[in-house]
């Protein structure tokens, strides 16, 4: 292999860590400064350089340069500084890089860019992006609903790249076996269409049959080229996400993060909160604010938990309410989505249904004990609303989950203060501890990043054919138990510093469930061994085995 190609391949490059012998053998002598560093030294030096960067965006661009050059070094560093790097590599800083992707573009990061205008190129593009690698995991987006910031066209590819980086640092998914994909079907974002720098297809989003045919073609080609694929869908729009999931979930090994991943982490958070408050799930009144992809996905997951805990469908439904733009959702509303319909209420249940057109009125009317925000509307959990909720429940469970930071429905600190320390809070992005009246409240992060890596590891290691509701429920329960109910101010979810440990817990639960249900392609005698075997660690390998 051409020595320059080795240095330019992030999966092979070791930079200054190439030994004298390797430099001789592969023609690298004289192509690097003389000193040979070990990985630890490289990481230390790179981290010191990282610390000279002042803004989060600069920090992310610097880390991405390392990622582009040398995957082992990048993941070594990331694993050493998970808590510090997560908000930089991933949400919320990733939102800035998505919004500015075209202007900031330097390197395509081994992604596949698939265009609806060239469906015949899907196969060759996937092959080219794989470059002969055995792809086991794809994160694909069409970027219509990136976080809460909307439609970002081709620029959304960064969410696929970012989600995959978290898979590796959290669960040890081999970075040479993953592929980020963006489906460029156009964009309705006027700012992009008018930006001369925009790198995507400069036309409106294609919808309808042509859209679904393109999705089908992509899924079919990807499944054929990569037979052991786990296909993760991310940030599709509200009109498509559930439709696509329902179409494929019983046929291929696939997952929708916003619907299923978010459902798992929120159920785990509620289980943690109830462990702290010593209350029963089936006594709760649940209010979903922002009944879109995530909101409906979460509601369904919590509702399924009520059924599992013995309630009939009819009894369980009485505990659930949804509020969207129009206010409380009623069953006579022709605009309801299929996911909203089961939870819409009858007007006859209320004395003044016509007044239930905003969150404040609904909270006052139904007295929720759990309020989960996935509305993309910042500051909508106001002091008045939170105080009204807290007046009727001892330990209100309040999760403002809209991302990035600027879109959160409330700040954790305010929720703690407004409820005099009674609220059990989790946020979508990392939130600092809150000190209030002598107690330090830790804020759990209810972000699907806490579950999707372990889920993926469990699915891949167990060779599961499908990811079904039973596996999803087991994943949520495995995380929901990890809280310390006796420590005042304890978080409802485990801390991000333990990301690798609880990814392992989730992986074991999911893999075991696949085995128990007979859902694996290959016989698995020990799920722990299967998982161990699958795990990649950031260490340099002998190049002889790789070339
Ligand atoms: N923490 C997490 O892990 C996590 C996971 C997924 C999504 N999210 C966040 O949840 C938010 C929603 O994401 P999504 O994928 O569900 O988007 P979506 O577009 O599918 O859903 C948003 C919903 O909010 C509704 N909405 C808009 N304005 C409203 C208002 N004023 N009042 C009430 N409802 C309103 C919309 O009509 C829509 O139904 C985003 O900010 C996203 O970042 C967080
Ligand atoms: O990406 C995140 O931070 C979580 C989630 O998938 C989202 O869309 O907000
Ligand atoms: Mn998402």
Question: What does the secondary structure layout of this molecule look like, with pairings?
Answer:
Elements: H1 3-8, H2 20-25, H3 39-51, H4 56-69, H5 71-80, H6 82-89, H7 93-99, H8 101-104, E1 112-115, H9 122-130, E2 137-141, H10 157-171, E3 178-184, H11 190-194, H12 208-225, E4 230-234, H13 241-248, E5 254-256, H14 257-277, E6 286-289, H15 293-308, H16 313-317, E7 320-324, E8 327-328, H17 359-366, E9 370-373, H18 383-390, E10 397-400, H19 412-418, E11 424-427, E12 434-436, E13 439-441, E14 444-445, H20 452-462, H21 469-480, H22 499-516, H23 527-534
Parallel strand pairs: 1-3, 2-3, 2-4, 4-5, 6-7, 6-9, 9-10, 10-11, 11-14
Antiparallel strand pairs: 7-8, 12-13
Helix pairs in contact: 3-5, 4-5, 7-10, 9-12, 10-20, 14-15, 14-21, 17-18, 20-22, 20-23, 21-22
This protein binds nicotinamide-adenine-dinucleotide (NAD), (2S)-2-hydroxybutanedioic acid and manganese (II) ion (MN).
Manganese (II) ion binds at residues 234-235, 257-258.
In words, what does this structure look like?
- With 547 residues, the chain is of the alpha/beta class.
- Helices cover 43% and strands 10% of the residues.
- It has helices at residues 3-8, 20-25, 39-51, 56-69, 71-80, 82-89, 93-99, 101-104, 122-130, 157-171, 190-194, 208-225, 241-248, 257-277, 293-308, 313-317, 359-366, 383-390, 412-418, 452-462, 469-480, 499-516, 527-534; strands at 112-115, 137-141, 178-184, 230-234, 254-256, 286-289, 320-324, 327-328, 370-373, 397-400, 424-427, 434-436, 439-441, 444-445.
- It has a seven-stranded mixed sheet, with helices on both faces. A five-stranded parallel sheet has the order 1-3-2-4-5, sandwiched between helices.
- Strand 2 (137-141), helix 10 (157-171) and strand 3 form a beta-alpha-beta unit.
- The protein is globular, with a radius of gyration of 24 Å.
- The model has no long low-confidence stretch (mean pLDDT 97).
- The site of (2S)-2-hydroxybutanedioic acid has 8 residues, from helix 14.
- Manganese (II) ion is lined by residues 234-235, 257-258.
- Residues 259-515 form the Malic enzyme NAD-binding domain.
- This is Malolactic enzyme.
- Keywords: Lyase, Manganese, Metal-binding, NAD.
- It holds the Pfam family malic.
């Amino acid at each position: 292999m051409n020595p320059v190609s080795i240095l330019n391949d992030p999966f092979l490059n070791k930079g200054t860590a190439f030994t004298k012998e390797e430099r001789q053998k592969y023609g690298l002598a004289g192509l690097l400064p003389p000193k040979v560093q070990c990985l630890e030294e490289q990481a230390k030096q790179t981290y010191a350089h990282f610390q000279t960067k002042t803004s989060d965006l600069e920090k992310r661009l610097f880390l991405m340069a390392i990622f582009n050059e040398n995957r082992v070094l990048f993941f070594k560093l990331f694993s050493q500084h998970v808590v510090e790097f997560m908000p930089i590599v991933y949400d919320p800083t990733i939102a800035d890089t998505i919004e500015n992707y075209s202007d900031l573009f330097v390197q395509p990061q081994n992604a596949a860019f698939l265009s609806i205008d060239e469906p015949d190129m899907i196969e060759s593009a996937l092959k080219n992006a794989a470059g002969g690698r055995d792809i086991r995991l794809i994160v694909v987006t069409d970027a219509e609903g990136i976080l809460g910031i909307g439609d970002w066209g081709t620029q959304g590819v960064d969410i696929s790249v970012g989600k995959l980086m978290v898979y590796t640092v959290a669960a040890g998914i081999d970075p040479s076996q993953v592929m980020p994909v963006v489906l460029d079907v156009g964009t309705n974002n006027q700012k992009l269409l008018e930006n001369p720098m925009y790198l995507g297809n400069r036309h409106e989003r294609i919808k309808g049959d042509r859209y679904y045919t393109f999705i089908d073609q992509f899924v079919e080609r990807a499944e054929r080229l990569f037979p052991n694929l786990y296909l993760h869908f991310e940030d599709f729009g509200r009109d498509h996400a559930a439709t696509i999931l329902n179409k494929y979930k019983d046929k291929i090994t696939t997952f929708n993060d916003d619907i299923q991943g978010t459902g798992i982490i929120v159920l785990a958070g509620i289980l943690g909160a109830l462990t702290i408050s010593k209350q029963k799930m089936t006594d709760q009144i649940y209010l979903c604010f922002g009944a879109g992809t995530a909101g409906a996905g979460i509601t369904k997951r919590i509702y399924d938990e009520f059924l599992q805990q013995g309630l009939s469908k009819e009894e369980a439904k009485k505990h659930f309410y949804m509020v969207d733009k129009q206010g409380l959702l009623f069953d006579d509303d022709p605009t309801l989505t299929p996911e909203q319909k089961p939870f819409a209420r009858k007007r006859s249940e209320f004395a003044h249904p016509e007044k239930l057109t905003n969150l404040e009125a609904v909270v006052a009317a139904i007295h929720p004990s759990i309020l989960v925000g996935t509305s993309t509307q910042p500051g909508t959990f106001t002091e008045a609303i939170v105080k009204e909720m807290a007046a009727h429940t001892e330990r209100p469970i309040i999760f403002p989950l809209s991302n990035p930071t600027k879109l959160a429905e409330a700040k954790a600190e305010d929720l703690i203060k407004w409820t005099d320390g009674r609220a059990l809070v989790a946020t979508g992005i990392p939130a600092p501890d809150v000190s209030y009246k002598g107690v330090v409240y830790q804020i759990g992060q209810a972000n699907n990043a806490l579950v999707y890596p372990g889920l993926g590891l469990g699915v891949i290691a167990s060779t599961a054919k499908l990811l079904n509701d039973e596996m999803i429920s087991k994943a949520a329960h495995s995380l929901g138990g990890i809280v310390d109910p006796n420590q005042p101010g304890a978080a409802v979810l485990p801390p991000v510093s333990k990301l690798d440990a609880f990814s392992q817990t989730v992986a074991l639960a999911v893999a075991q469930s696949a085995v128990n249900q007979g859902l694996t392609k290959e016989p698995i005698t020990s799920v722990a061994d299967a998982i161990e075997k699958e795990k990649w660690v950031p260490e340099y390998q002998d190049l002889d085995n790789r070339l």
